[in-house]
Protein 1
Amino acid sequence: MVVEPFPMEDRRMDDLPYLMRGRKAVSTESSVLISSSKFLNDGRIRDWITSENLRRNGRDYPMTYGIPALISAVREVQDQERIEELFNEARRGWPELDKWLNERYMSTLTKDDVKSCAPDSVGGIFYNYLTSQGLEIDIVTRFEPKTSFEYFFLRGVQTHDFMHILGGIGFDYLGETVPAFMKFGNLFKHFCPELAGALNIQNTLLTMPTFTRTLLHYPECWPAMWEMAARGQHIGETSDPLFLPRYEDYLDLTPAQARIKFGIRNVVETDSTELSDIWSEGAQSAQRDAVKLAAE
């Protein structure tokens, strides 16, 4: 089928290709791009979606570089008051959630705190990751959360690395797929769709473009990435609420013991290190080598 680029108003309906029928012209006096979608209206989000879906991975542009700007844009676009209402509705019939939101526990864990953990424990695996990558624990500046939504976000940042360990996946680039889909599955299981959707918007904008990028440029990684997404989703939707536990109090447990403790189910240990090096065009191994060289 050939779609001809003529204005639809200049053509009879019978002449229009079937897939182009039903289009209605909408007039506006706006001098800038405007849509019924508040996400499409935000130039920062439009730029993120376009770039992240279509670009290749390059060492000139760190994978995390655009994330702070995206987070800021999403927070400005989302209806904060409505999200708070949804949290209040959820906590009324959920004592554990109500207590969790009232306490607003924030971790003060440091790298030194996990230095003495056994190598095969959650804390030991976490410490090895931090030291091998030359990282500190806080990747987002700590702040005093004023709302349930802010607390949920900040606490999620603090527990993200534990989702890698307990989800049976490494800390490589493709490994991010598993905890991302654990979050999708888990939040839609334990919250109403509107709240689960609101809490997954940032997760969606960060995760979904990587699938398009993979298929366009790194198709050899696609089957594994799709498999990890399915596994993460299954873990999330069959597990207890992943956001409630104080994982920091049980870092001496092995991952297997911790999964039993926290009700994390259907985990399949996966190693995507080699594929991540293909996907990152060598950036994964280059980063590892750079950290080793700096430590020598």
Note: The chain has a mean pLDDT of 91.
Protein 2
Amino acid sequence: MEAHLTEWLNLGIRWIHMITGIAWIGASFYFVWLENNLNRSNPRDGLAGDLWAIHGGGIYHLEKYKLAPPQMPDNLHWFKWEAYFTWLSGIALMLVVYYLNPSLYLVKPGVDLDPALAIAIGFGSMIAGYVAYHFLCDSVLGKRPALLGAVLFVLLIAAAFGFNLIFSGRAAYIHVGAIIGTIMAGNVFFTIMPAQRALVKAIEDGTTPDPTLPAKGLLRSRHNNYFTLPVLFIMISNHFPSTYGSQYNWLILAGIAVLAVLVRHYFNTRHDSSKYVWTLPVAALGMICLAYVTAPVRSTPEAAPVAVSESQPAVTVAKMEEISEAAPGAAGAKFTEVNKVIQQRCSVCHSAQPSSPMFSAAPLGFMLDTPQQIKGQAAKIHAQTVASQIMPLGNITQMTQEERDLIGTWIAQGAPLD
């Protein structure tokens, strides 16, 4: 029952996180699009520009004031709770998934790190990340957007590299996402909302608003817009072990982040011209290249060395043959021996009826009860238990290196069932 309740708690928080996140991202995308597409030619007095649009069977006319209208309207819509609840639900999700079981989900297997310290590092990194970002934005770099972006990129990828040394692959990725999410929510809470409140108060008091505050709020809003796609990738990355499970996962994250920013930049600038249309084919080609370089190496004599795990050096096919000879039941790496390992180390969770108290059903519906299921999932088994060694979670079932080598050898032979 405890596993069932935890699963539904996870689902409920994740559902809230997704709903509020969509609302926040939608508002961000729309208002940046609106700002970029305003007609600024000969606006009427007091306006920065206007825009006509059609949607849902109706025609809309939107106007933006240079700074403020002469008096406040009766109804003014604010956009803030989407950001706050997205961040709060994200923190709650981290507590449920990673911080309630830090030894299992957070700390990297084989790393001697106190769980409480790991949690402190994770949560502290979010605060430190926002403070560093805020300081850089208020420094001379704030007036040089391209250089500021490059510095932030290097710092975030450095954080990804550092997290990868102590956290599991999934936890490393999600904590980079948490830093970015904290920066985005912090922008709303500490910069954008105060600027908007000051603007409204000045109008109500009949004084001249300070134009620097709205300008700073707009800049931070643009930053949030560019952060969005990398964060979205991180949110879905736990479904793709070839990214977070790689020994070079921080470089993969860097590559995907760059491609995501390129795509976002095209959509942010296409109203002005198509000079950045090249970013779309470049992003597509970049994804193909990432898929290629992360592909598992096939067992051929010409194959290049391949890393067996995040912590081990690369091994050649010849070495794999030596492993096959040394592994238990190595005479052809018989399926009977492989099945015995899988049933003992993997099926406690990945079964129609898991014996592990942590799960009431097989995670992601991934079951390894029958020979056919095992053979059909051979590629995923290799990625999770041999290449990245992220499974079993926290190595809770104590799978040995010899058993991983046995599975790897069997899969390299074509995963025969006889």
Note: The radius of gyration is 26 Å.
Protein 3
Amino acid sequence: MAESGAPAPAAGGQPFNFKQAIGQMVQRSGSDLLLKVGRSPTVRVNGELAALDMQPLKPEDLKTLAEQIMTPRQVKEFAEKKEADFAIGVPGVGRFRTNIYQQRGTLAFAFRAIPYEVKTVRELLLPPVLEEIALRPRGLVLVTGITGSGKSTALAALINHINHHRRVNVITIEDPIEFLHRDVMSNISQREVGSDTLSFAAALRHVLRQDPDVILLGEIRDMETLDTALKAADTGHLVFSTLHTTDATQTINRVISFYPPHQHQEIRALLSTALQAVVSLRLVPRQDGRGRVPAAEILINTAAVADNIRDIEKALNIPDLIAEGTVSYGMQSFDQSLMQWYKDGAVSYESALFYASNPSEFALRASGINSASDRTFTEITGNQGAGRSQDFTA
């Protein structure tokens, strides 16, 4: 991991002070710092972009910064691929996931803040049922959402919960390593693609020989990764990973679509037995402006869900199955989660409506109108921690 902090000199003007820029991002509780030529450094705070009061960046500013924070291996990777992912530490400021890329022939950076301390499920205001999911003995748990929805933070909280409650061997394969875990009850080995292993594929070929009880794959990017994750989950391991999907239904469809049509029946059968849960996240701005709260859709693989996944003749009916499992299994839809945050005063009606999966039904329910057969908004009081002051960090 590279260490950075010295200002990058700019030819013919005030030097660009990278440590000052990234320090301002942290002071504002921002999640990201974006650097590109011709624009002042820009931070993302509570999902909104804001330019810092600094001079627009010059090509030489970012070229010098790259030379300071990148290792020779990262420089070589960037030269070959025109983009690279890695993590850096800035003394006295924090750790950051970093992406360098090119735009219009010049360098650009995106830095994502990584907290030193891994927060718990409850500190992140996530539903407590996630603690139960984390302690399952085997199966595949997928955490999904768009970029910046808090997938990595939620996964870190799940691993942290295992670390404090189970004596197991945990192997993670990440690109790059973000949150640092220290052994408590568990033995945790964190492997970074590029520095600890040549590639995801290389690490996956050997991971089952490293005696893991729990495996974390940073992201499922291809069929080979998915295949290994499913087989590991089906052979008695607990496997965590992420997908860039928006809800449980799309997640299951995406998993099936990785495979050619003639394998769909086989994969449906494997998924129906290997899957433990799908947790989908959306970060919603708090009404008081103090950060964001997580709206979470949670699908638990019950017998009814497994039957629906397995039967290739039937369309997926995940929303109804989530509604049926709210009370018994702790499942919840996005709209149930948003309704609870709205009722507790954490988010505004406008924000809840904007992030709802079915805005028209949400609006009717919020106004007190619902049919006798409507189970979509079964109360989920106690399943998420509204009203607390902690902010969710994406």
Note: The first strand starts at residue 2 and ends at 3.
Protein 4
Amino acid sequence: MRKTLIALVALTGVMASTGAAVAAPDVHRSVLQRDADALLDQGAPGALVELDTPDGRVKVRSGYGNTAARTPVSWQTHFRIGSATKTFTATVLLQLVGEGRLSLEDTVDRWLPGVVSGNGNDGTKITVRQLLQHTSGVPDYTQALDFLRSAESFQANRFRTLTPTEMVAIALRYPPTFAPGTGWEYSNTNYVLAGMIIQKITGHDWQWEVQRRIIGPLGLRDTTAPHTEPYLPTPHAVGYQSFSADGPVIDATVMNPTWGDAAGAIISDTDDLNTFFQALIGGRLLAPDQLRQMQTTVPAHELDPAYPNVRYGLGIMWVPTSCGGYWSHGGDIPGFKTRDGVSADGRRSVVITINNDALVPKQGTPPAKYDVSVDLMEHAFCGTS
């Protein structure tokens, strides 16, 4: 069913679903609103939160989608999901595994001969599983992208196109961070390579396969896997970004997303992301064996400061809570911060979008002890207040 835009003028607000679903309990609505408001103290210009449960759907919002116009974030706002793209990419590769078209134990060199070579990087020793789990040791190309660290450079390069081949070549200027399979370190290059493998096997780019295998079948009408298109569909918030604590805040909404590629280029909304994660964990996108492989995790200590004791599977991570935990893969990209989670049974999910990726707490507000989403997710999944 196509979503209906509901416009309100208040800075904070609540929308409950109507129709066949029963409204979710008021306790979640009030707690979610409080937690959304708290995101503003952490520096969010605006935020939209959607909680989907078997009892219904609740959305809350706070702050501004456009600070100059002083308008709220639209209930149906589109946003760049950043690294939540990785879960889509991993799902496609695991579907191909289920079809017998490759194995998780295949080497990268099996599909991309000679592509990962140089400075000690060796694709003959790296498996597809290690790419998806960030245990490959392949360095991250984004460390060399200066336009991700400077407002002036971002403005000068926001329409620049980067190809997967170029990004991998950039990464291989650096030695591996560890021998394959001996450590864990987040690297966007892993997923650029995963996208290249998808194209090698299917003859189609990763965007086409995501559309054919996930977006279309699930009816994700507000999700796109763009190529060079720099604009967001409407409605959308302004994506604000600062590149240093004392630097200027710029409008980063318009941006060529090719540098994110299969690691971070997708655009979506809260409804669609909840639908995707519930379908994935609910077993609608992967056969049981492939879902089990996706959910086989290893410690990801690099992420412990944000999510204590988090574990990483294949394109998804398990985040502990006081009542168990949830599956998740957030994303950070200039202008937008995405956080999400889905319960182990796939029946309860939450998506948060914030229209600034570089949050600086308001004066007098202590920085969040962990990731800014941790308290909200705890309350959404465990019902504590």
Note: The mean pLDDT is 92.
